[in-house]
Design goal:
Growth Hormone, Chain: A, 11 helices
Length: 311
């Protein structure tokens, strides 16, 4: 559609909905697969290396995508993106693991899986706390960042080059944090993850200003770092403390809340910005990061001691 010039917003929204369904199926299964494939006691390191590879790819992709769009247009960039998914599919198909060959237990079905997954989440208060925090963080902070951040860059910072600089700062922060999580193994990983999420607030507040680009880029670096720490420790805590046969099901429950919250937050961010203005919404998002993080850390079960390695 983009190559032919016939794409509409509704067409792209429908296709993105299909991509969302695919992501909802893939992400929980991938989370469980990492736990199966990682060497014994090295699941945290495996997640850190995955985060590092994603960050390196993101940095390279920003420059490559810009070059393709400039040379051949957005349609060609999406065609190259599609080719990358094809390569990914081939590499995933080559994975061999004993766990992948196990047959499903008799009598197991979708409703049974949902019940077991829900029970596994509700039995672990630390996981409930994390699930609530990540869903609300997506809705009230992350969504306004990705909806209104490019708007601020376009109106006040010089357009796409400014947002690209902020995105590169974010990716560099993710890369540096991946190196940190390779070595840091906190005894209270969910508390550590939520405490690090506070580093998202400065970027939101500075975009509301808006601050100059030379302040926004280091703030983006801190925001990218917190994202990697947050996701790595939360994923590893689940992989190391939930039985493997329940892992993908519990992760799908957590992912469901996060996926529902994100589009809802994006829709609300646009409406709120039209009503209140861009700056108040971004300031509110920054305040929410701090308030929700403090509230979550005040709950004793958030500070539970959890292993970060499989034995």
């Amino acid at each position: 559609m983009l190559i032919s010039g016939h794409a509409t917003v509704w067409d792209l929204a429908a296709l993105q909905a299909g991509a969302g369904v695919a992501s909802a199926v893939f992400t929980p299964a991938a989370n469980g697969l990492v736990a199966e494939l990682a060497p014994a006691g090295r699941v945290r390191e495996a997640n850190s290396m995955l985060a590092m590879s994603k960050s390196i790819a993101a940095i390279a992709a920003l420059g490559l995508a810009g070059a393709i769009v400039a040379a051949a247009g957005p349609g060609a960039a999406f065609a190259a993106d599609a080719a990358s998914f094809a390569i990914s599919t081939v590499s995933l198909a080559a994975i061999r693991s004993p766990a992948l060959a196990l047959p499903a237990p008799p009598g197991r079905g979708l409703l049974s899986d949902i019940r077991h997954g829900w029970a596994a989440v509700t039995e672990r208060r630390w996981l409930c706390n994390y699930a609530a925090h990540v869903a609300l963080l997506n809705a009230i902070a992350i969504s306004p960042l990705f909806v209104l951040g490019p708007l601020v860059a376009d109106r006040r910072l010089g357009g796409a080059p400014a947002w690209a600089a902020i995105a590169i700062g974010y990716a560099l922060g993710s890369l540096l944090a991946a190196g940190l999580t390779l070595r840091w193994s906190p005894t209270r990983p969910i508390a550590a993850a939520i405490a690090c999420s506070l580093a998202l607030a400065p970027l939101l507040a500075l975009l509301a200003g808006p601050a100059p680009l030379w302040l926004l880029v280091p703030a983006a670096l801190a925001a990218g770092a917190q994202g990697t720490v947050y996701n790595t420790f939360a994923s590893t805590a689940q992989q190391a403390n939930i039985p493997s046969y329940l892992l993908s099901r519990t992760n799908s429950m957590v992912t469901l809340g996060a996926l529902i919250a994100a589009p809802a937050g994006m829709a609300l961010a646009g409406v709120a910005a039209d009503t209140l203005g861009t700056a108040p919404v971004l300031y509110l998002a920054a305040a929410w990061v701090v308030a929700s993080g403090a509230a979550a850390l005040a709950i004793p079960t958030t500070r539970s001691r959890l292993a970060l390695s499989l034995t």
